[in-house]
Amino acid sequence: MTHVTPSANRxxxxxxxxxQRGEFAALWLRERSPDDGTLDPRTGQRLVxxxxxxxxxxxxxxxxxxxxxxxxxxxxxxxxxxLAALFDDQTIDPSKRLWGAANAPRPAADFAAxxxxxxxxxxxxxxxxxxxxxxxxxxxxxxxxxxxLVDRIGPLRRTNWGGIADVKSVANAYDLxxxxxxxxxxxxxxxxxxxxxxxxxxxxxxxxxxxxxxLADGLMAxxxxxxxxxxxxxCLTRVTPSFRYRDxxxxxxxxxxxxxxxxxxxxxxxxxxxxxxxxxxxxxxxLEAYYAARQAFYQLITGEELTLHLKLDPGQMLIMxxxxxxxxxxxxxxxxxxxxxxxxxxxxxSTASRRRVLRQQLATPQGQGETA
Length: 372
Hints:
By secondary structure, the protein is α+β, with helices and mostly antiparallel strands.
């Protein structure tokens, strides 16, 4: 059953629909009206100037029929909302699956299949979105082996290191990733604006002793911190350190909290980069709270409760959500052989767009949605 109840001044509408309840402002409903007079039918972009709608706009009539909400506004406009779609817009996306070491997934995809088949590519992207990473097998083991699959999704993000760059031990390393040193769990490049969205790490050879990769779900770490130490959690969402990278040709700096919240107050992004973090000289009591909170978060992301260990084989590629996962590696010794990875970045907008478009296309029966 569905019930609609306008407020006394008719500038709000309460809707109860199959156990869901929402309260919607008249102006919000008017500017989001899903009709051709308000939204362009092809692009979905708004045709009316929302800032010119009367602030005292009211809902003059509201009726429900066949799971649709029929509205008439005080400016004379009429529209019809699909009730399921109206509530979908208010629902937090449930499709992300947070994990720890005990229930860590192993999402897998095949390079050739994802390259040739839209359903396989969609499966890969949905796995990446749900779990924060996916392991792709069968990647050609030459230096630009990942490039054809990158091209299926969006442009490669170029940085001061170029496009697809080496990750291996070199003399006179300009970054600690280019040494044999183990790396603590971290997110990449928090000193950039925007931060690269997805890391593509392609294994060419991995015969060195050590060099195993580690992954930890930063959103799960944030959830556990909120449950176990609410004050520490609040501190890491409030205090904003900066992050900086400099070399002879580059000077990059940005800022943001270690745990970033979305508009609903839920964790949406984590940052952690011990090598590049610069906390400002805050009042001592605030710094003390921050240092304790950071340590609590660090203990979570480095502990075995959340850490997944894996070692990539030649021809495998790890794609990681750089806003969600923290990754690291153990130290390695070249006495056993060479460890040579290639790494590139793809931004979030192109990745999300490709995933959504494929989801819609694959859900639409062939022939529907076509125009003459």
